[in-house]
Protein backbone atom coordinates (compact mmCIF):
# COMPACT_ATOMS: atom_id res chain seq x y z
CA UNK A 1 0.00 0.00 0.00
CA UNK A 2 1.37 3.36 -0.93
CA UNK A 3 0.41 6.60 0.66
CA UNK A 4 1.80 8.77 -2.02
CA UNK A 5 2.54 12.40 -1.32
CA UNK A 6 1.31 12.91 -4.79
CA UNK A 7 0.57 16.57 -4.59
CA UNK A 8 4.17 17.38 -4.20
CA UNK A 9 4.81 15.85 -7.59
CA UNK A 10 4.38 18.11 -10.54
CA UNK A 11 3.07 21.02 -8.54
CA UNK A 12 5.65 22.44 -6.26
CA UNK A 13 8.78 24.30 -7.05
CA UNK A 14 9.89 23.30 -3.58
CA UNK A 15 12.78 25.67 -3.87
CA UNK A 16 14.32 26.91 -0.67
CA UNK A 17 16.33 29.90 -1.89
CA UNK A 18 18.80 29.55 0.97
CA UNK A 19 19.37 25.91 0.04
CA UNK A 20 19.80 26.33 -3.69
CA UNK A 21 23.34 25.88 -4.94
CA UNK A 22 24.94 28.51 -7.10
CA UNK A 23 24.26 26.50 -10.25
CA UNK A 24 20.50 26.58 -9.88
CA UNK A 25 17.56 24.82 -8.33
CA UNK A 26 17.60 21.10 -7.54
CA UNK A 27 14.95 18.43 -7.73
CA UNK A 28 13.05 17.80 -4.53
CA UNK A 29 12.45 14.32 -3.18
CA UNK A 30 9.92 12.89 -0.78
CA UNK A 31 11.45 9.80 0.78
CA UNK A 32 9.55 7.06 2.60
CA UNK A 33 11.50 6.11 5.70
CA UNK A 34 10.64 3.19 8.01
CA UNK A 35 10.58 4.81 11.47
CA UNK A 36 8.13 3.21 13.89
CA UNK A 37 6.65 5.26 16.72
CA UNK A 38 9.22 5.45 19.48
CA UNK A 39 13.00 5.71 19.47
CA UNK A 40 13.37 5.41 15.71
CA UNK A 41 10.92 8.23 14.93
CA UNK A 42 12.39 10.49 17.61
CA UNK A 43 15.94 9.88 16.35
CA UNK A 44 14.91 10.80 12.79
CA UNK A 45 13.45 14.08 14.03
CA UNK A 46 16.39 14.76 16.30
CA UNK A 47 18.82 14.48 13.39
CA UNK A 48 17.13 17.46 11.77
CA UNK A 49 15.45 15.89 8.77
CA UNK A 50 12.40 17.65 7.30
CA UNK A 51 9.83 15.14 8.50
CA UNK A 52 6.32 15.62 7.14
CA UNK A 53 3.45 15.74 9.67
CA UNK A 54 2.07 12.47 8.36
CA UNK A 55 2.59 8.76 9.00
CA UNK A 56 1.68 5.58 7.08
CA UNK A 57 1.89 2.61 9.43
CA UNK A 58 5.53 2.28 10.45
CA UNK A 59 6.72 4.79 7.82
CA UNK A 60 7.38 8.51 8.04
CA UNK A 61 8.17 10.82 5.10
CA UNK A 62 11.18 13.10 4.66
CA UNK A 63 11.50 16.01 2.22
CA UNK A 64 14.99 16.49 0.81
CA UNK A 65 17.25 16.69 -2.21
CA UNK A 66 19.35 14.23 -4.21
CA UNK A 67 21.75 13.78 -1.27
CA UNK A 68 19.20 13.11 1.43
CA UNK A 69 18.96 9.37 0.84
CA UNK A 70 22.73 9.09 1.32
CA UNK A 71 22.57 11.09 4.53
CA UNK A 72 19.77 8.87 5.80
CA UNK A 73 21.77 5.75 4.99
CA UNK A 74 24.79 7.14 6.86
CA UNK A 75 22.50 7.78 9.81
CA UNK A 76 21.21 4.21 9.70
CA UNK A 77 17.88 4.75 7.96
CA UNK A 78 16.63 2.97 4.84
CA UNK A 79 14.60 5.05 2.40
CA UNK A 80 12.76 4.72 -0.87
CA UNK A 81 11.80 7.50 -3.24
CA UNK A 82 8.11 8.31 -2.92
CA UNK A 83 8.08 11.27 -5.32
CA UNK A 84 10.66 13.31 -7.19
CA UNK A 85 9.75 16.82 -8.28
CA UNK A 86 11.98 18.42 -10.90
CA UNK A 87 12.88 22.06 -10.52
CA UNK A 88 10.72 24.48 -12.45
CA UNK A 89 11.25 28.09 -13.39
CA UNK A 90 10.22 30.91 -11.13
CA UNK A 91 6.61 31.87 -11.76
CA UNK A 92 4.74 35.13 -11.28
CA UNK A 93 1.88 35.63 -8.90
CA UNK A 94 -1.59 34.89 -10.22
CA UNK A 95 -3.34 38.21 -9.74
CA UNK A 96 -1.42 41.28 -8.70
CA UNK A 97 -0.62 41.23 -4.99
CA UNK A 98 -3.85 39.64 -3.82
CA UNK A 99 -3.49 35.94 -4.57
CA UNK A 100 -1.02 33.26 -5.63
CA UNK A 101 -1.18 29.64 -6.78
CA UNK A 102 -4.70 29.73 -8.13
CA UNK A 103 -6.42 31.81 -5.46
CA UNK A 104 -4.59 31.56 -2.13
CA UNK A 105 -4.55 34.96 -0.46
CA UNK A 106 -1.32 36.79 0.28
CA UNK A 107 -0.47 38.11 3.74
CA UNK A 108 -1.32 41.62 2.57
CA UNK A 109 -4.72 40.45 1.36
CA UNK A 110 -5.41 38.59 4.61
CA UNK A 111 -4.66 41.66 6.72
CA UNK A 112 -6.81 43.86 4.46
CA UNK A 113 -9.59 41.29 4.69
CA UNK A 114 -9.70 41.64 8.47
CA UNK A 115 -10.09 45.41 8.20
CA UNK A 116 -12.74 45.08 5.50
CA UNK A 117 -14.83 42.67 7.56
CA UNK A 118 -14.58 44.88 10.64
CA UNK A 119 -15.54 47.98 8.66
CA UNK A 120 -18.55 46.24 7.13
CA UNK A 121 -19.72 44.58 10.37
CA UNK A 122 -18.93 46.97 13.23
CA UNK A 123 -21.58 45.26 15.37
CA UNK A 124 -19.71 41.97 15.06
CA UNK A 125 -16.01 42.39 14.39
CA UNK A 126 -12.96 44.11 15.90
CA UNK A 127 -9.39 43.92 14.61
CA UNK A 128 -6.59 43.70 17.18
CA UNK A 129 -2.90 44.32 16.46
CA UNK A 130 -1.13 41.99 18.89
CA UNK A 131 2.50 42.52 17.87
CA UNK A 132 5.06 42.65 15.09
CA UNK A 133 6.70 39.91 13.06
CA UNK A 134 10.48 39.47 13.31
CA UNK A 135 11.20 41.36 10.10
CA UNK A 136 9.02 44.25 11.20
CA UNK A 137 10.93 44.51 14.49
CA UNK A 138 14.10 44.79 12.39
CA UNK A 139 12.72 47.52 10.13
CA UNK A 140 13.11 45.10 7.23
CA UNK A 141 9.61 44.64 5.81
CA UNK A 142 7.49 42.25 7.81
CA UNK A 143 3.98 42.74 9.10
CA UNK A 144 1.79 43.56 12.05
CA UNK A 145 0.50 40.45 13.78
CA UNK A 146 -3.28 40.73 13.62
CA UNK A 147 -6.29 38.98 15.06
CA UNK A 148 -9.97 39.55 14.52
CA UNK A 149 -12.49 39.19 17.34
CA UNK A 150 -15.97 38.27 16.13
CA UNK A 151 -19.06 38.15 18.33
CA UNK A 152 -22.47 39.82 18.71
CA UNK A 153 -20.96 42.74 20.56
CA UNK A 154 -22.13 43.62 24.05
CA UNK A 155 -20.27 45.62 26.72
CA UNK A 156 -17.02 43.89 27.65
CA UNK A 157 -16.84 41.74 24.54
CA UNK A 158 -13.53 41.55 22.65
CA UNK A 159 -11.74 43.22 25.57
CA UNK A 160 -8.17 42.12 26.19
CA UNK A 161 -9.00 40.70 29.58
CA UNK A 162 -9.45 37.09 30.66
CA UNK A 163 -12.65 38.01 32.50
CA UNK A 164 -14.66 38.95 29.41
CA UNK A 165 -18.25 37.67 29.58
CA UNK A 166 -18.42 35.04 26.82
CA UNK A 167 -16.38 31.84 26.38
CA UNK A 168 -13.77 32.14 23.66
CA UNK A 169 -12.77 30.04 20.68
CA UNK A 170 -9.32 30.93 19.33
CA UNK A 171 -8.31 29.64 15.87
CA UNK A 172 -5.05 30.25 14.02
CA UNK A 173 -3.64 29.36 10.61
CA UNK A 174 -0.22 29.19 9.00
CA UNK A 175 1.99 29.04 12.06
CA UNK A 176 3.82 26.71 9.67
CA UNK A 177 3.93 28.97 6.67
CA UNK A 178 3.77 26.36 3.91
CA UNK A 179 0.56 24.81 5.26
CA UNK A 180 -1.46 27.09 3.01
CA UNK A 181 -4.78 25.28 3.44
CA UNK A 182 -4.99 26.62 6.98
CA UNK A 183 -4.94 30.32 6.12
CA UNK A 184 -7.69 29.72 3.63
CA UNK A 185 -9.79 27.92 6.26
CA UNK A 186 -9.38 30.96 8.51
CA UNK A 187 -10.51 33.29 5.73
CA UNK A 188 -13.65 31.23 5.09
CA UNK A 189 -14.44 30.98 8.80
CA UNK A 190 -14.31 34.75 9.18
CA UNK A 191 -16.62 35.25 6.20
CA UNK A 192 -19.09 32.64 7.41
CA UNK A 193 -19.19 33.97 10.96
CA UNK A 194 -20.48 37.34 9.77
CA UNK A 195 -22.85 36.11 7.04
CA UNK A 196 -24.32 32.64 7.58
CA UNK A 197 -26.21 30.56 10.10
CA UNK A 198 -23.03 30.64 12.21
CA UNK A 199 -23.77 34.27 13.12
CA UNK A 200 -26.51 33.12 15.51
CA UNK A 201 -23.89 31.32 17.60
CA UNK A 202 -22.16 34.65 18.23
CA UNK A 203 -24.77 35.62 20.83
CA UNK A 204 -23.04 33.31 23.30
CA UNK A 205 -19.51 32.72 21.96
CA UNK A 206 -16.62 35.05 21.16
CA UNK A 207 -14.37 33.90 18.31
CA UNK A 208 -10.78 35.05 17.75
CA UNK A 209 -9.10 34.25 14.45
CA UNK A 210 -5.44 34.77 13.54
CA UNK A 211 -5.38 33.79 9.88
CA UNK A 212 -1.61 34.12 9.45
CA UNK A 213 0.36 33.47 12.64
CA UNK A 214 3.72 33.52 10.82
CA UNK A 215 3.50 36.27 8.17
CA UNK A 216 7.25 36.50 7.50
CA UNK A 217 7.26 32.79 6.65
CA UNK A 218 4.23 33.18 4.42
CA UNK A 219 5.96 36.04 2.58
CA UNK A 220 8.64 33.51 1.64
CA UNK A 221 6.02 30.94 0.59
CA UNK A 222 4.15 33.36 -1.66
CA UNK A 223 7.37 34.74 -3.16
CA UNK A 224 7.25 31.63 -5.36
CA UNK A 225 3.99 32.80 -6.86
CA UNK A 226 2.25 29.95 -8.62
CA UNK A 227 4.93 27.54 -7.44
CA UNK A 228 4.93 28.30 -3.71
CA UNK A 229 8.15 27.93 -1.72
CA UNK A 230 7.72 25.26 0.94
CA UNK A 231 9.01 27.37 3.82
CA UNK A 232 7.89 26.15 7.26
CA UNK A 233 9.65 28.33 9.85
CA UNK A 234 9.74 32.06 10.56
CA UNK A 235 12.43 34.31 9.00
CA UNK A 236 14.67 34.93 12.01
CA UNK A 237 18.27 33.79 11.85
CA UNK A 238 20.52 32.40 9.17
CA UNK A 239 21.54 29.04 7.81
CA UNK A 240 24.21 28.40 5.21
CA UNK A 241 22.88 25.05 4.01
CA UNK A 242 19.13 24.95 4.49
CA UNK A 243 16.11 27.05 5.31
CA UNK A 244 16.49 29.93 7.75
CA UNK A 245 14.19 30.47 10.68
CA UNK A 246 12.85 29.00 13.89
CA UNK A 247 10.08 26.40 13.99
CA UNK A 248 7.36 28.29 15.84
CA UNK A 249 5.73 24.99 16.77
CA UNK A 250 8.87 23.86 18.66
CA UNK A 251 9.73 27.19 20.31
CA UNK A 252 7.12 27.41 23.09
CA UNK A 253 8.23 27.08 26.71
CA UNK A 254 6.52 23.85 27.66
CA UNK A 255 9.10 21.04 27.83
CA UNK A 256 11.09 23.15 25.36
CA UNK A 257 14.16 21.42 23.93
CA UNK A 258 12.88 17.89 24.41
CA UNK A 259 11.68 15.29 21.90
CA UNK A 260 11.12 16.01 18.23
CA UNK A 261 13.01 19.30 18.06
CA UNK A 262 16.52 20.27 16.99
CA UNK A 263 19.28 22.65 18.08
CA UNK A 264 20.53 22.81 14.46
CA UNK A 265 19.64 26.21 12.93
CA UNK A 266 19.18 24.61 9.52
CA UNK A 267 16.72 22.00 10.72
CA UNK A 268 13.05 22.34 9.86
CA UNK A 269 12.34 21.67 13.54
CA UNK A 270 14.90 24.16 14.90
CA UNK A 271 13.54 25.13 18.30
CA UNK A 272 15.34 28.48 18.60
CA UNK A 273 18.12 29.53 20.99
CA UNK A 274 15.88 29.37 24.08
CA UNK A 275 12.29 28.78 25.06
CA UNK A 276 9.90 31.48 23.80
CA UNK A 277 12.75 33.25 21.97
CA UNK A 278 10.67 34.36 18.98
CA UNK A 279 8.63 37.55 18.81
CA UNK A 280 5.79 35.66 17.11
CA UNK A 281 5.73 33.15 19.99
CA UNK A 282 5.85 35.87 22.62
CA UNK A 283 3.05 37.84 20.98
CA UNK A 284 0.75 34.83 20.79
CA UNK A 285 1.39 33.92 24.41
CA UNK A 286 0.70 37.47 25.59
CA UNK A 287 -2.53 37.43 23.61
CA UNK A 288 -3.61 34.08 25.07
CA UNK A 289 -2.89 35.30 28.60
CA UNK A 290 -5.13 38.28 27.88
CA UNK A 291 -7.92 36.07 26.58
CA UNK A 292 -8.01 33.16 29.02
CA UNK A 293 -7.99 32.74 32.81
CA UNK A 294 -5.32 30.43 34.21
CA UNK A 295 -7.24 27.50 35.67
CA UNK A 296 -4.44 24.96 36.04
CA UNK A 297 -1.64 24.51 38.59
CA UNK A 298 1.89 23.94 37.23
CA UNK A 299 3.26 20.47 36.53
CA UNK A 300 2.57 17.63 34.14
CA UNK A 301 -0.29 15.97 36.01
CA UNK A 302 -2.45 18.79 37.41
CA UNK A 303 -6.00 19.08 36.10
CA UNK A 304 -7.57 22.33 34.99
CA UNK A 305 -10.57 23.31 37.09
CA UNK A 306 -14.09 22.34 35.95
CA UNK A 307 -15.07 26.00 35.47
CA UNK A 308 -12.49 26.41 32.65
CA UNK A 309 -13.97 27.86 29.47
CA UNK A 310 -12.70 28.21 25.92
CA UNK A 311 -10.93 26.21 23.24
CA UNK A 312 -7.76 26.94 21.21
CA UNK A 313 -7.19 25.46 17.74
CA UNK A 314 -3.91 25.57 15.79
CA UNK A 315 -4.54 24.53 12.20
CA UNK A 316 -1.84 22.61 10.35
CA UNK A 317 -1.61 20.25 7.42
CA UNK A 318 -1.71 17.41 6.68
CA UNK A 319 -2.68 13.86 7.67
CA UNK A 320 -6.35 14.09 8.77
CA UNK A 321 -5.64 14.16 12.48
CA UNK A 322 -7.06 15.89 15.56
CA UNK A 323 -4.19 16.07 18.08
CA UNK A 324 -4.23 17.12 21.74
CA UNK A 325 -1.69 17.42 24.62
CA UNK A 326 0.62 16.21 25.70
CA UNK A 327 2.75 16.32 22.57
CA UNK A 328 6.13 16.17 24.33
CA UNK A 329 5.36 12.62 25.45
CA UNK A 330 2.50 10.14 25.49
CA UNK A 331 2.02 10.78 29.21
CA UNK A 332 -1.63 11.65 29.85
CA UNK A 333 -2.71 15.12 30.98
CA UNK A 334 -4.88 15.63 34.04
CA UNK A 335 -7.79 16.27 31.68
CA UNK A 336 -7.13 13.43 29.28
CA UNK A 337 -10.66 12.01 29.21
CA UNK A 338 -12.24 15.37 28.42
CA UNK A 339 -9.63 16.36 25.83
CA UNK A 340 -10.00 12.96 24.17
CA UNK A 341 -13.79 13.30 24.07
CA UNK A 342 -13.68 16.78 22.53
CA UNK A 343 -11.13 15.58 19.97
CA UNK A 344 -13.26 12.57 19.12
CA UNK A 345 -16.33 14.82 18.69
CA UNK A 346 -14.35 17.00 16.26
CA UNK A 347 -12.96 14.00 14.42
CA UNK A 348 -16.42 12.51 14.06
CA UNK A 349 -17.36 15.59 11.99
CA UNK A 350 -14.54 15.11 9.51
CA UNK A 351 -13.54 11.46 9.47
CA UNK A 352 -10.14 12.38 10.94
CA UNK A 353 -8.34 10.29 13.59
CA UNK A 354 -7.94 11.68 17.12
CA UNK A 355 -5.09 11.12 19.56
CA UNK A 356 -1.95 12.51 21.15
CA UNK A 357 0.86 13.27 18.66
CA UNK A 358 2.94 10.41 20.05
CA UNK A 359 0.05 8.02 19.57
CA UNK A 360 -0.45 8.87 15.89
CA UNK A 361 2.77 10.50 14.59
CA UNK A 362 5.72 11.18 16.89
CA UNK A 363 6.41 13.12 20.07
CA UNK A 364 7.15 16.81 19.57
CA UNK A 365 7.98 19.26 22.39
CA UNK A 366 7.59 23.03 22.35
CA UNK A 367 4.31 23.13 20.39
CA UNK A 368 1.82 25.89 21.05
CA UNK A 369 -1.00 23.53 21.99
CA UNK A 370 1.07 22.05 24.81
CA UNK A 371 1.92 25.56 26.01
CA UNK A 372 -1.72 26.71 26.04
CA UNK A 373 -2.85 23.74 28.09
CA UNK A 374 0.25 23.77 30.30
CA UNK A 375 0.19 27.49 31.09
CA UNK A 376 -3.54 28.21 31.18
CA UNK A 377 -5.41 24.90 31.36
CA UNK A 378 -7.41 25.72 28.23
CA UNK A 379 -8.20 22.73 25.99
CA UNK A 380 -6.06 23.05 22.88
CA UNK A 381 -5.89 21.07 19.67
CA UNK A 382 -3.92 20.75 16.46
CA UNK A 383 -5.82 19.89 13.31
CA UNK A 384 -3.79 18.30 10.52
CA UNK A 385 -6.06 19.17 7.61
CA UNK A 386 -6.16 17.08 4.46
CA UNK A 387 -5.05 13.72 3.18
CA UNK A 388 -1.55 12.84 2.08
CA UNK A 389 -2.51 11.82 -1.44
CA UNK A 390 -4.80 12.88 -4.25
CA UNK A 391 -5.23 16.26 -5.90
CA UNK A 392 -6.60 17.73 -2.66
CA UNK A 393 -3.90 16.26 -0.42
CA UNK A 394 -0.43 17.36 0.61
CA UNK A 395 0.87 20.86 1.26
CA UNK A 396 -0.35 22.38 -1.99
CA UNK A 397 -3.92 21.36 -2.84
CA UNK A 398 -5.55 22.84 -5.91
CA UNK A 399 -7.34 25.96 -4.75
CA UNK A 400 -10.75 24.52 -5.66
CA UNK A 401 -10.17 21.82 -3.01
CA UNK A 402 -10.52 24.39 -0.27
CA UNK A 403 -14.15 25.15 -1.00
CA UNK A 404 -15.17 21.69 -2.16
CA UNK A 405 -13.26 19.31 0.11
CA UNK A 406 -11.58 20.88 3.14
CA UNK A 407 -13.96 23.65 4.14
CA UNK A 408 -17.09 21.49 4.67
CA UNK A 409 -15.16 19.27 7.09
CA UNK A 410 -13.35 22.08 8.86
CA UNK A 411 -16.56 24.10 9.17
CA UNK A 412 -18.24 21.20 10.96
CA UNK A 413 -15.25 20.85 13.28
CA UNK A 414 -15.32 24.59 14.02
CA UNK A 415 -18.98 24.36 15.01
CA UNK A 416 -18.06 21.49 17.31
CA UNK A 417 -15.27 23.62 18.78
CA UNK A 418 -17.57 26.61 19.34
CA UNK A 419 -19.99 24.41 21.25
CA UNK A 420 -17.16 22.99 23.37
CA UNK A 421 -16.08 26.42 24.63
CA UNK A 422 -18.91 26.67 27.20
CA UNK A 423 -17.96 23.82 29.51
CA UNK A 424 -15.13 21.74 28.04
CA UNK A 425 -14.39 19.84 31.26
ZN1 LIG B 1 2.40 22.23 10.80
Automatic annotation (TrEMBL):
Its EC number is 3.4.17.18. The keyword Protease applies. Pfam families: Peptidase_M14. PANTHER family: PROTEASE FAMILY M14 CARBOXYPEPTIDASE A,B, SLL0236 PROTEIN. The keyword Hydrolase applies. It is an enzyme of class 3 (hydrolase). Keywords: Carboxypeptidase, Hydrolase, Metal-binding, Metalloprotease, Protease, Signal, Zinc. Carboxypeptidase that possesses the specificities of both mammalian Cpase A and B. Thus shows broad substrate specificity, being able to cleave Cbz-Gly-Leu, Cbz-Gly-Val, Cbz-Gly-Phe, Cbz-Gly-Lys and Bz-Gly-Arg in vitro. Its cofactor is Zn(2+). This is Zinc carboxypeptidase. Transmembrane segments: none annotated. GO terms for cellular component: extracellular space. GO terms for molecular function: metallocarboxypeptidase activity; zinc ion binding. It comes from Lentzea guizhouensis. Residues 1-22 form the signal peptide.
Amino acid sequence: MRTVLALLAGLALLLHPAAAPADGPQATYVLRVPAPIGDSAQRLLGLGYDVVEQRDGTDLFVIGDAHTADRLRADGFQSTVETRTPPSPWAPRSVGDATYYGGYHTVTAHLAHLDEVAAKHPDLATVVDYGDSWRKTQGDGGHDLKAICITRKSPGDCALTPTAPKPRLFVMGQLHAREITTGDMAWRFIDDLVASDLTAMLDTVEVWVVPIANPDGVDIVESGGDTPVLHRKNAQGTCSAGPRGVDLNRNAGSHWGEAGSSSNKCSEVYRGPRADSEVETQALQALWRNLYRDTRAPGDTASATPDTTGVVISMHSYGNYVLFPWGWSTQKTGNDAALRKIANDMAAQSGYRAGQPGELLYNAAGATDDWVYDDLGVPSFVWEIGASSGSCGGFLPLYSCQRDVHWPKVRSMLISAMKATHKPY
